[in-house]
Amino acid sequence: MYLLLKMITNAQIKAITSLQEKKHRNQTNSFVVEGRKMAEELLRSDYEIINIFALNKWTLPNTSFAINKVHKNIDEKITYISEKELERISSLKTPDDVLCIVKQKKTQKINLDNQLVLALDNINNPGNLGTIIRLATWFGVKNIICNENTVDCYNQKVLQSTMGAIFHINLFYTNLYQFLQSHTSQNIYGTVLQNGKNIYNEALTNEGIIVIGNESHGISKDILQMINRPITIPCFAKENEIESLNASVACGVILSEFKRQTI
């Protein structure tokens, strides 16, 4: 059964494609979600969907609970468009049936008691941030704090790298130094190359803040001053064979060891 296509206007096309830029996402407090997999994860979340633009062959996934409880009147938000129109509004090389316009979430307060929290210091690579979000979700971390210079989580490359995990975690941007300064009573772990405790020998806890530094420069000097539990992932290669680990790889190793010790 084919549904009647609606013509998407030039004004809509311009508005949608403008959301590829951070300033327009911030101005409109919205962002774009593309593809079947991402749309399915979106519909399982409590993010507010503004519009859905889809091909006739796309159908709502079987997420009736989420649709009934959160996404009321979702059918009214769907506009069925042609493949050519989807290509015009998509940022993907090969558009995947559906594109959603979604409202950004407001920052939520977090309780740091009895949980691990990730703090990201100048993570610049979209793929790294996306992978870190996936890792956090996998290992049960519910909150990620980013400093203002970390890449925008609603960047399309970040979103695609999360594979939908972005919809199941609380992530917000703030002045990281001030945040850590107000939580000095917490265990503040930081991954350092020198003078850190071997992560495999150190007794780790199931609560605290884990700081992940920049891909090239590590943790910045001002943030480094706030670290009270410096840790290191030991290198087992021969000297000078490798300088450091990728930020997202290091994050995965760290979260895995924290969980191994504390479950």
Secondary structure layout:
Elements: H1 10-18, H2 22-28, E1 30-34, H3 36-43, E2 49-54, H4 64-69, E3 78-80, H5 83-89, E4 98-103, E5 116-120, H6 126-138, E6 143-147, H7 156-162, E7 170-174, H8 176-181, E8 188-191, E9 197-198, E10 208-212, H9 221-224, E11 229-232, H10 247-262
Parallel strand pairs: 2-3, 5-6, 5-10, 6-7, 8-10, 8-11, 9-11
Antiparallel strand pairs: 1-4, 2-4
Helix pairs in contact: 6-7, 6-10
Written account of the structure:
This protein has 263 residues and is of the alpha/beta class. 32% of the residues lie in helices and 19% in strands. The strands form two sheets. The chain has a seven-stranded parallel beta sheet. Strands 1-4-2-3 form a four-stranded mixed beta sheet. Helix 6 (126-138) packs parallel to helix 7 (156-162) and helix 6 (126-138) packs parallel to helix 10. It is elongated, with a radius of gyration of 21 Å. It starts with 9 loop residues before the first helix and ends with a helix. The mean pLDDT is 90.
List keywords for this structure.
263 residues; alpha/beta; seven-stranded parallel β-sheet; four-stranded mixed β-sheet; 10 helices; 11 strands; elongated
What's the short version?
This protein has 263 residues and is of the alpha/beta class. The chain is built from ten helices and eleven strands.
Order of helices and strands: HHEHEHEHEEHEHEHEEEHEH
**What's the arrangement of strands in the largest beta sheet?**
7-6-5-10-8-11-9
End-to-end Cα distance, whole Å, is 50 Å
C-alpha Rg (nearest Å):
21 Å
Poorly predicted segments: none
User: What value does the average pLDDT take?
Assistant: 90
Major beta-sheet overview: 7 strands, parallel
Q: What is the β-strand count?
A: 11
Question: What is the percent of helical residues?
Answer: 25-40%
Q: DSSP helix count?
A: 10
Tell me the overall shape: elongated
Q: Indicate the proportion of strand residues.
A: 15-25%
Structural class: alpha/beta
